[in-house]
Structure formats: C-alpha cells, structure tokens
Nucleoside diphosphate kinase
Amino acid sequence: ALERTLSIIKPDAVAKNVIGEIYSRFEKSGLKVIASKMTQLSRAEAEGFYAVHRERPFFNALVEFMISGPVMIQVLQGEGAVLKNRDLMGATNPKDAAPGTIRADFADSIDANAVHGSDSLENAAVEVAYFFPATDVFAR
Ligand code: CMP
C-alpha cells in the first residue's frame, strides 16, 4: 500500500555532508520526499519526539545528541514506505547493519546512527504530524 513515513537525518550525518547521498538512496528505491525541513531541535521538541523512550537508560544521551546540531527532517512516500525506509537504514546499531545500508555506510555508533525512521505505520502518522502541518506535506 502507498504509505508515508517520517525520516530524520541526524546531526552526525548532517555534519558529514551526506544529506544528498541519503536522499539519493530514498529516491533510487522509489521513495518520494513529500515534505522536508532543516532545523535544530529544542530540548522540549526532542524529548517530546522520543517520549516513548523516556524511561530508557539512553534517553538523556539520545536527547543531548539530537539537539547537538541541525537535523534534516522529511516525510517519505511510497509503496510500503515504512519497511522500505527501515531496510534502507539497516539495524539501529551500525555494528549490526547489513553492508550497503545507510547506517553501515555512514553511522559511527548506536547513538550517532545517522538516521531515524518510523517503526510502524501507526507511529509514522504520529511522527509526521509532530513535525509537519498537513499544509506542508505535498502528496504527489
Ligand atoms: P532511533 O531510531 O532514532 O530511535 C531511538 C534512538 O535511541 C535510536 O535510534 C538510537 O540512536 C538510540 N539508542 C541508543 N541506545 C539504544 C539502545 N540500546 N536501543 C535502542 N536505541 C538506542
């Protein structure tokens, strides 16, 4: 089915100047960028976005990392977009990520792991709405 998913290029990958390389992977796999913005998240925005992880031991480090520099946030649309994006990203820990995935190629650690992608269609809708008003999402 045609789906939408939320993708974030994290501060480490923005600093490495690989936004375009990552966008190329989305496009070559048939995903369309239908909304996009560069921003530096506030602490409150990062804490709210990752609220499901609030009780996890890595929560504070995750928030500190996500606010450490600008991020690129996009909505991707395509057939099976949620799983397709997760396949492109590879495993959360780059040590476990399959060769040729974004995290295998660009990530340094489980914290600085280059990209975020929604883990389900339900969460994708919540995450897209967290960052983009409907008028800034361009279905095409
Ligand atoms: P992300 O997909 O953005 O969702 C939560 C993030 O927490 C995850 O990617 C990792 O960068 C980070 N993280 C740090 N430690 C862990 C861990 N042990 N398990 C899962 N995520 C972790």
Observations:
- Residues 53, 58, 62, 92, 110-111, 113, 116 surround adenosine-3',5'-cyclic-monophosphate (CB under 6 Å).
- The chain has a mean pLDDT of 98.
- The CA atoms of residues 18 and 106 lie 8 Å apart.
- The beta strands are 2-9, 32-39, 71-79, 115-117.
